[in-house]
Amino acid sequence: MQGSNMQFEAQRNRLPSLYEVLARKTAAPVDLYCFYIYMRDQQRSVDYLDFWLDVAQHTSLCRHFVRELRRSILVETPDLEKTNSKRSSYMLDHMSEMNDPAGPSTDLNDEEKIKDQNLSAYLRENTGASNHSPQSSLGSQPSGLRASGDRAFPGGERPPRPSFMSRNSPTRTDSDSPAHTVARADIRASAEKILFTYILPGSEREVVLPQGIVQAITTAIEEEGRDDPELFDTAKDYTFQAMERDAFPGFLRSKALGNLVPPSLFLRAVFGILAMFAGFWAGFIFIFLDFPKHTRCWVILPFTIGVYLLASQQYSIDPILALVGYSEYTFFNFSRVREPYVRKLLNKRALMVLLVTIAVGVCVIVLFVFVPGVRL
Fold first, then answer.
1. How are the residues of the chain apportioned to helix, strand and coil, as percentages rounded to the nearest 5?
2. pLDDT tens, position by position, 268-322
3. Long-range contacts from 171-180, C-beta under 8 angstroms, 24+ separation
4. Which own/partner contact pairs does 296-303 have at CB distance under 8 Å and 24+ positions apart?
5. Residue 328 bridge partners (DSSP)
6. Spatial distance between the Cα atoms of 298 and 200, rounded to a whole number of angstroms
């Protein structure tokens, strides 16, 4: 998986899509971790991303449960045709290989749609506790991003994710371990957690959804007893489109065309104005006190600093930082730029900002160094 992602990155000669970011097919500074921080610190709408990730994790939980159930049935009854429910056996037999989709359900191909429909249909038919449900379970996990270092599991599935922002996550073992399998109660708890955390009006982290979607999900969970992933498809698609429309363009502008965060931009504006004030103050003193030109050269220092800081604030990019390959993801915390196309864009913009800085700086310095002095 990691090798194919790296190959995909090397071949991409464009900015990534939201689908690629959520599928973890991108690298810093346009990866899922940076997008989470952007949604939290700048967009102030991280609840939408957490909701989308929790729904995706709920789907993964359901798939992990069904895969473990299928495995236990194969161990106990090798010939699935001899089981009582032909339909359930058929659906279990055709849900062994399922990947976690990162985009909206409308983008799935026909095969993936059939597998998702079979998964939801099976869970709806088997609402009660299954005889093959494992004794121990993972339980519901807190919200957050999936850790990028998740271990690979058969069929490309992973058990429930720990919080991405938490460092004290439990250590995992292989999914074959009975102590780390998923019970049906976990699926129900996961669906209810999503309902009570994000969907119900006045909930802790309520996500604004159309009333029809909220009512449909509430009825399906509380009255019909459903917990299959299909019931969240409409809300998940709505959230994906909202992030793609309202948040993702700003994220690309911030990370692919710049490498600074708002607090750094504010400080650069303040110190740039102070440096320019110091340069003008010293320059006028040197002129009106008729200092020699070699003494006036001291104005090079404040003017260079001031023009550089103001230019970097105006274009949201630190040229030197960009040329050495770093980007700021939180205030004074930096990461390497590993996305090749983004690195290329940042280098071009860094050179352009340096040229602007040099041109403006030279003009101002020449004006205050070579203008004739007049002693007052």
1. 60, 0, 35
2. 999 999 999 999 999 999 999 999 999 999 999 999 999 999 999 999 999 999 9
3. 175/64, 175/68, 178/134, 178/135, 178/136, 179/136, 180/136, 180/138
4. 296/368, 296/369, 297/369, 299/365, 299/368, 299/369, 300/365, 300/369, 302/275, 302/276, 302/278, 303/275, 303/276, 303/279, 303/361, 303/364, 303/365, 303/368
5. 334
6. 64
